[in-house]
Design a protein that fits this description.
Blueprint lengths: L1 H27 L6 E5 L6 E5 L5 E4 L3 H27 L4 H4 L4 H10 L1 H10 L6 H19 L4 H6 L8 H13 L3 H16 L1 H4 L24 H14 L10 E5 L10 E5 L1 E3 L7 E7 L2 E7 L8 E3 L3 E7 L5 E5 L2 E2 L2 E7 L2 E4 L1 E7 L7 E7 L19 E5 L8 H10 L3 H7 L8 E7 L4 E6 L3 E2 L10 E2 L9 E2 L7 E3 L5 E4 L20 H11 L6 H7 L6 H11 L9 H11 L11 H21 L1 H7 L3 H11 L19 H20 L12 E5 L10 H4 L1 E5 L20 E3 L1 E3 L3 E4 L7 E2 L18 H5 L4 E2 L4 H7 L2 E7 L1
Parallel strand pairs: 1-32, 3-7, 11-21, 25-27
Antiparallel strand pairs: 2-3, 2-32, 4-5, 4-24, 5-29, 6-28, 7-8, 8-9, 9-10, 10-18, 11-17, 12-13, 13-14, 15-16, 18-19, 19-23, 20-22, 25-26, 30-31
Length: 797
């Protein structure tokens, strides 16, 4: 008995030691927010004050030292995110996650981002301010890689930490330039739809923005080929499980002093990006004797894409311009290594790449390039034997000066300096928003735009052999859409169609008017805006477009076919004010009906696969209101019902019946229980959260959330047959800068500042975010020092 007790005591002791060892190991993986560290090459001491939410306020004697410290603290909170983001363009995701990502790597290697980054760096002036500051930031990251703890994700995947280079910075920016990817999903699909159905069906699609909807006004100071579906399916598959978020859309509005209570500019911005854990932005406040900026940084990028100081504020939304064109190429029947051009036959360029695969053999593949770009068939295995389609992407064409642009934006001290940096942004297309302490407001659409012949629609696959479908010219930046200090005293962007430029409407994948209409409606109605009313507006969940649609369609209801319960809910829907609150049932019924209406209208013609691909486009979002208001047209008839020609009224009634039946099945027979909180939820997913046993340790949420697609508080979701709306994208931050009280400007992140699951700042803002709360973006040094939770000091070695 004594021996058993002794053995048990030894085992208990060993278990205790194991627990202690695990605790010590886990504790060693946490970021260091206090104490002293040395950094190679520092000229002077740098003090980093971490506030209550883990945001670093970096005080240095010079900017190079500040950027080194920024690189270090950014890496200790976000190295895993940096690692994934730089791997996308280089085709190195399968190296981390295995064979399921071979197609993703293949796709991005074929896009040419990495090759273009290498070319840009080869021609980079290493003595420019941009390069010097970027290298200082990278030195800080690499110091952490060398001397700091290894994040848990590296242990779990078995990958090694590797130093960062300036190519990685350009690759991260290149991924951002690509990531909204609507041309890939839309142009080949539209071509297939036209080939399958004919022009009569196409004229009833919202391919171009409706002229009766709200557009952004300029102000310049003067009053049957299956290839399409195969490519779309291939792109969708490649992007489906990408472990980094896609950039989606965004809101921003800036109000002039004439429309504010305190007579100063107020600025708001909430970029819409795919939700993930960690969230996209890393906040940092950098101060030197000659420079200050409170900025939002993309992982691995030294200069903030969003930022403000006491003089000015700037932010971004996606322009949604069309910067990708697809071309049918023609191979030489006598020599398959050549393709047809206006000048005669030219040889394909052949490029071979190798993908490393975790727990598998390396995969090598070769793709062809023409004068337009890569041949997409070589990327999509299922269409390798078909007619070649080349892809032309503006990002890989002109000289890449995007990093210089970001440096210029973040270092501008006034409107003129800020504006001078904008022409350097050739891609991605961005709406850049601006406001300053002097009372100026501005909006510029930045991108290298080009003009096509009037007869050419870039929404379809073009002819690559004749020369007739090529760009005629590049537009000068002065011809881009913009408005500076317009007489209506505000600027805004909600990814909607901008008014005509250079005598034409610029083609794009613009989102419907819903958010723009609400923003204009609210801004026009009020001339005494302040920070509090801005914070209410940025959380607005009302859709005037959806209520207009209900009013239009409910007239078609045959009430004699409705039960008493249905009549009650229809009456409630008729009186709905368009708000998406958690306890409301009208949003749930509306979205079920909306889905079934589109499905019953279009799936019979398109087929299930093409219909599901259509649901993933911005065109679908524009089609909802446009299509439902069409009184007649070929889409309404169900081609599968012989001897019957369905009308809009038939489809409306069938869709309501289908929606009701599905709600009873999913949520029970009591309509009062069909509340929005049961179907509209947000979970921030870490790549490891897809493994069920790890989900609770890495994911954040789920939370029921207010809002919906295309309201100002744009908590969006993909449509599918499940009838549940799992939010996939939304405000990546909500920022409000009030120049009457700039030190008390406010913001919020979706989860937390840190991407380290052992940090207390991994998810400390998540509940605040879903509750619509804010916190200060602190800029007052005395307040920062007095309230700092900790101080980390860097000294030279």
């Amino acid at each position: 008995m004594k021996k058993i007790k002794k053995v048990l005591l030894i085992l208990a002791g060993l278990l205790l030691l194991l627990v202690i060892a695990i605790a010590i190991f886990i504790n060693s993986l946490k970021p260091d927010y206090s104490g002293k560290k040395t950094l190679d090459g520092l000229q002077s001491e740098v003090n980093v004050y971490f506030d209550t939410y883990g945001i670093p306020h970096i005080y240095a004697e010079n900017e190079v030292d500040a950027l080194k410290a920024l690189g270090y603290v950014h890496a200790q909170d976000r190295l895993w995110q940096m690692e994934l983001l730089r791997r996308v363009a280089k085709g190195r995701i399968a190296e981390v996650f295995g064979k399921d990502f071979i197609k993703t790597d293949k796709f991005f290697l074929s896009m040419g981002i990495d090759d273009q980054s290498a070319q840009t760096v080869a021609n980079l002036d290493k003595n420019s301010e941009t390069a010097i500051m970027a290298q200082a930031y990278l030195d800080g990251i690499n110091d952490f890689i060398k001397n700091g703890p290894t994040p848990i994700e590296f242990y779990l995947t078995g990958i090694d930490k590797e130093p960062f280079s300036i190519e990685d910075v350009y690759n991260a920016v290149g991924y951002m330039a690509f990531s909204f990817a609507m041309a890939h999903k839309t142009d080949p699909l539209l071509t297939s739809m036209r080939d399958k159905l004919g022009d009569e069906y196409m004229k009833d699609l919202a391919i171009d923005s409706d002229t009766s909807t709200v557009w952004i006004k300029n102000y310049h100071g003067i009053k049957t080929d299956s290839l399409g579906t195969d490519i779309t399916a291939s792109v969708t598959e490649a992007l489906e499980n990408l472990p980094v978020p896609l950039f989606e859309g965004s809101n921003s509005w800036v109000v002039s002093p004439e429309k504010t209570k305190n007579g100063k500019v107020i600025f708001a911005n909430d970029p819409h990006i795919g939700f993930a854990q960690p969230s996209v932005w890393y906040e940092a406040h950098v101060v030197t004797p000659t420079y200050e900026k409170y900025g939002y940084h993309l992982a691995g990028v030294p200069f903030p894409l969003l930022g403000h100081d006491r003089n000015l504020a700037y932010g971004l939304t996606m322009f949604e311009n069309d910067d990708i064109d697809f071309y049918y190429e023609e191979a030489n029947p006598a020599d398959s290594t050549q393709y047809k051009t206006v000048e005669g036959w030219k040889p394909f360029e052949y490029i071979t790449k190798t993908i490393k695969v975790k727990d598998g053999e390396d995969v090598s593949f070769t793709f062809k390039k023409t004068q337009h770009g890569p041949i997409m068939n070589d990327i999509a295995d299922q269409i390798s034997g078909e007619r070649p389609i080349g892809m032309s992407w503006i990002y890989t064409k002109p000289k890449n000066e995007v990093l210089d642009a970001l440096y210029g934006l973040s270092h501008a001290t006034n409107l003129e300096e800020f504006q001078s940096a904008l022409p350097k942004i050739h891609a991605p297309g961005l709406n850049v928003m601006y406001g300053d302490a002097k009372g100026n407001v501005g909006w510029w659409a930045t991108a290298k735009l080009y003009q096509m012949a009037d007869s050419v629609s870039t929404k379809f696959i073009l002819d690559g052999t004749s020369g007739k479908d090529e760009p005629i010219r590049y537009l000068d930046f002065s011809e881009n859409p913009s408005a500076v200090n317009p007489p209506w005293h505000y600027v805004y962007s909600a990814n909607n169609q901008p008014d005509s430029i250079a005598g034409m409407l610029y083609p794009g994948y613009y989102l419907p008017e819903n958010r723009a209409k609400r923003i204009v409606q609210l801004l026009d109605a009020k001339d005494d805006w302040d920070k509090e009313s801005f914070s209410e507006m940025i959380l607005d969940v009302t859709s005037p477009v959806n209520t207009d649609l209900v009013t239009e369609l409910i007239k078609l209801f045959d009430v004699s076919h409705l039960s008493t319960e249905q009549l009650v809910l229809v009456d409630s829907l008729k009186n709905w004010n368009g708000e998406y609150t958690l306890n409301s049932t009208s949003p749930t019924l509306f979205h079920r009906c909306e889905y079934f209406m589109v499905k019953n209208t279009m799936e019979d013609e398109l087929g299930t696969e093409m219909f599901n691909e259509f649901l993933g486009t911005h065109l679908f979002k524009r089609q909802i209101a446009w299509g439902a208001k069409m009184e007649s047209g070929k889409w309404w008839d169900n081609v599968n019902t012989k001897d019957v020609v369905e009308t809009r009224k038939d489809i409306v009634m069938k869709s309501f019946a289908d929606a009701w039946q599905s709600l009873v099945k999913d949520l029970g027979p009591d309509p009062s229980q069909w509340t929005w909180d049961k179907v509209h939820t947000l979970e921030h997913q870490h790549p490891f959260g897809k493994v069920e046993s790890l989900r609770k340790y890495f994911n954040v949420g789920p939370f029921p959330v207010e809002g919906t697609r295309e309201v100002i508080n744009n908590l969006s979701f993909p449509y599918d047959s499940t009838g549940y709306y799992k939010v996939s994208s939304g405000p990546s931050t909500r920022r409000i800068v009030d120049f009457s009280d700039v030190e008390n400007s406010i913001s919020i992140l979706p989860t937390g500042q840190s991407g380290n699951p052992f940090s207390k700042h991994y998810k400390d803002q998540a509940e605040m975010y879903v509750q619509g709360k804010f916190r200060k973006m602190m800029m007052n040094k005395q307040e920062i020092q007095e309230t700092a939770e900790s101080v980390l000091t860097f000294t030279k070695k």
